[in-house]
Amino acid sequence: MNELILDIDDLSVIYKTDLETVKAVNGINLKIGKGKTLGLVGETGAGKTTTALSILKLLPENTGKVTSGNVKFEGTNLLEMNEHEIREIRGGQIAMVFQDPMTSLNPVMTVGDQIAEAIIMHNEGLSKGEIEKRIDEKLTMVGILPSRKTEYPHQFSGGMKQRVVIAMALACEPKLLIADEPTTALDVTIQAQVLMMIKELRNRLGTSMLMITHDLGVVAKICDDVAVMYAGEIVEAGTVHDIFLGEDHHPYTEGLFGSIPNLSSRTKRLNSIPGLMPDPTNLPEGCIFAPRCKYCMDICIRVHPNTVFDETHSLKCHLFDGKLRRDKQEGKSEKQ
C-alpha cells in the first residue's frame, strides 16, 4: 500500500454503564493510504460510527472507553494526545461529516458563521476579508451561491444542508475526511449529486477519506479499498476489486451482495440474511456470524476464527483456514 495516513491497530471500544458493558468494537485493524478512500461497510449497529468517533476521541465521556489499540495519524498516536492537542487535529487535519445534517448545524447561526468558526479556529492570523473569501470559496466548491452565507439552516433543503456540512468539513482542507453515511437522509437524485461532489473534491484536494456506509453501490463508486464490519469485527477487507470481483468472500459479505435487488430477474421477495446480529453485551464464544451462517461447522461455534491473508485480501472465517479459494461445500457437508 502507499504511505499510510491512518493506521488503526487492534482497536477495541466498550460502552460501560452500571447495568451492562457493550463490546462495540473488538480488535479491528484498518489502514488508509495517502490520497486513498477506504469504505467501511456493515449493517446498523456493527460499530462503524464508534470507530470513527474513536479516531477523533469523540466517544461519550462517561460511558465510551478505548480498552486497547492504537490510532496512528501520520505516525502519531491520536489516543495518547490530550484534549488541547486533539483539538488542533480535529477540523484542521482530520474533519468529519456526520450522519444527519439536520442535527449537525446550529439553527441560530448563519451557515457562513458556522463555516467561519472552523476557519478561525485553525487559522488565527487571517483578516476578516480573507475569512469571508474562504467562506465564499468553500460554498462555491460545494455548489452553493456565496450570497446565501447569511441564511440560516432552516432556509436550506436537506441536500443543501449536507453540502453546507461538507463545506464546513473542507474549510481547512483536511488531510483526512471521515464521512459517516453522508447520503443517508437524502433522496436518490441528491445522493448521486453529493457523492459525485465528494469524489470531485477528494480528487481536487488530494484528501484521503474514510467512507462509512451500508450501501455497496456507494463503495463501488467512491472507494479504493473496502472493509466489511460485523458485530464490532472486520470480517473481510481488501481492494474494491477483491471484494466485488474476487472469488472468495466471507459468508456475511455473500449475504450483503445477495440482499441487493437484481434488476434483471423477477421475484416476489427480496433476499435477506436470516437472524439478527448478536447481542454486543453477550457475544458468541466462537465465530460472531456462526448463528446466521449457512456454512456453519462445529468449530465455528467453539473457536474464534483467525484472519487469513492473501496479499491485499483478508478474511476472518474457518472456511478459509490455511488458504483461500477453499470449496465452501466442504463446510456444508461437514455440517450435515
From TrEMBL:
Which InterPro entries does this chain map to?
AAA+_ATPase, ABC_Ni/Peptide_Import, ABC_transporter-like_ATP-bd, ABC_transporter-like_CS, Oligopep_ABC_C, P-loop_NTPase
Which Pfam families does the annotation name? ABC_tran, oligo_HPY
Gene3D superfamilies assigned to the protein according to its UniProt record, in alphabetical order: P-loop containing nucleotide triphosphate hydrolases
Record GO cellular component, one term: plasma membrane
**What GO terms are given for molecular function?**
ATP binding; ATP hydrolysis activity
- Identify the residues that the record assigns to the ABC transporter domain, covering every copy: 6-256
Q: Which CDD domains match?
A: ABC_NikE_OppD_transporters
**Per its UniProt record, what SMART domains does this chain match?**
AAA
UniProt cross-references to SUPFAM superfamilies, sorted A to Z: P-loop containing nucleoside triphosphate hydrolases (SSF52540)
> What processes does the entry annotate via GO biological process terms?
peptide transport
Membrane topology per record = Peripheral membrane protein
Keyword vocabulary terms for this entry: ATP-binding, Cell inner membrane, Cell membrane, Membrane, Nucleotide-binding, Translocase, Transport
Q: Does the keyword Translocase apply?
A: yes
Question: Main site of residence?
Answer: membrane
Q: Where in the cell is it found?
A: Cell membrane
The similarity comment for this entry is:
Belongs to the ABC transporter superfamily.
**Name of the protein this chain belongs to:** ABC transporter ATP-binding protein
Provenance organism: Sedimentibacter hydroxybenzoicus DSM 7310
Lineage, uppermost ranks: Bacteria, Bacillati, Bacillota, Tissierellia, Sedimentibacter
